[in-house]
Design a protein that fits this description.
The chain has 215 residues and is of the alpha+beta class. It has a single domain, classed as 4-Layer Sandwich (Metallo-beta-lactamase, Chain A). It is built from eight helices and 13 strands. Strand 3, helix 1 and strand 4 form a beta-alpha-beta unit. 44% of the residues are buried.
Length: 215
C-alpha cells in the first residue's frame, strides 16, 4: 500500500493521533499530536519512517496539545488547520488548564490550509477539504489512492462532532458532511478523531445524526 496508517490514541480523551507513512519514500507525517508525545515518537520509531511534518485537522486541545513541542524537538513544519482556528490556537494554555491536561504551548502553523489545497507525505498527495462546524477552521485530509480520509471531529462511527463550543455551528457541520463528505465515494474508509473507523457509505445509511440528510 502506498500510504500506511498507524493510530495512537492519546490523552485522557483517547484522541486518534495518526502516523501516515509513504511506503515509497519512508517519509512520515504525524496528524493531530494531541499529547503523550513519548508514545507518539515511539510509534514513529516503530514505523521505521522519517518524520517530515505535522498535519492538523483542528485546534482543539486534545488534537494539538503536543504540536509545539513536537515541532520544536524535531524541527518539523506544521500544516493546517484553516486560519479560522487561530482563536483556538491562541487559547491553548487556557484549554489545557480547563481540561486538566499537560501545559500546551501556542504555535504558528507554517502553512494555513484552504479548501482545495493539497498536502504531501513523501510522494503521496492528500486533498484538503475545509469542513467547518465543529470548529470554524476544521479540515479533512483525503488520500484518493487508498480511499482513506482523516476526518478529525467532523464525523464519527454513529455520531457527529459536538457543536456546543464557542464558534461551533451545528447547521454548518451538517452542511459540511452533506455537501463535502457525502460528495465523495461510499467506500471511503475514514478515521475519526475518537473511536473506530467506518465508511462514508455506512454512515450515510445508519448514522442517526446525518442519515436523514442523505435520504
Amino acid at each position: 500500500m502506498s500510504l500506511s496508517v498507524s493510530v495512537i490514541p492519546v490523552t485522557a480523551f483517547q484522541q486518534n493521533c495518526s502516523i501516515l507513512k509513504c511506503e515509497e519514500t519512508g517519509k512520515v507525517a504525524v496528524v493531530d499530536p494531541g499529547g503523550d508525545l513519548d508514545r507518539i515518537l515511539q510509534a514513529v520509531e516503530q514505523s521505521g519512517g522519517e518524520l517530515e511534518k505535522i498535519l492538523i485537522t483542528h485546534a482543539h486541545m486534545d488534537h494539538v496539545g503536543a504540536t509545539a513541542d513536537l515541532a520544536e524537538q524535531k524541527s518539523l513544519p506544521i500544516e493546517g488547520p484553516q486560519k479560522a482556528d487561530q482563536f483556538w490556537i491562541d487559547q491553548l494554555p487556557m484549554q489545557a488548564q480547563m481540561l486538566g491536561l499537560a501545559e500546551a504551548k501556542v504555535f504558528t502553523p507554517n502553512r494555513w490550509l484552504e479548501d482545495g489545497d493539497t498536502v504531501t507525505v513523501g510522494n503521496q498527495t492528500l486533498q484538503v477539504i475545509h469542513c467547518p462546524g465543529h470548529t470554524p477552521g476544521h479540515v479533512v485530509f483525503y488520500h484518493p489512492e487508498t480511499k482513506f480520509a482523516v476526518v478529525g471531529d467532523v464525523l464519527f462511527a454513529g455520531s457527529i462532532g459536538r457543536t456546543d463550543f464557542p464558534m461551533s455551528d451545528h447547521q454548518q457541520l451538517l452542511d459540511s458532511i452533506k455537501n463535502k463528505l457525502w460528495a465523495l465515494d461510499d467506500d471511503i474508509t475514514f478515521l475519526p478523531g475518537h473511536g473506530p473507523t467506518s465508511t462514508f457509505g455506512h454512515e450515510k445509511q445508519t448514522n442517526p445524526f446525518v442519515s436523514a440528510t442523505y435520504k
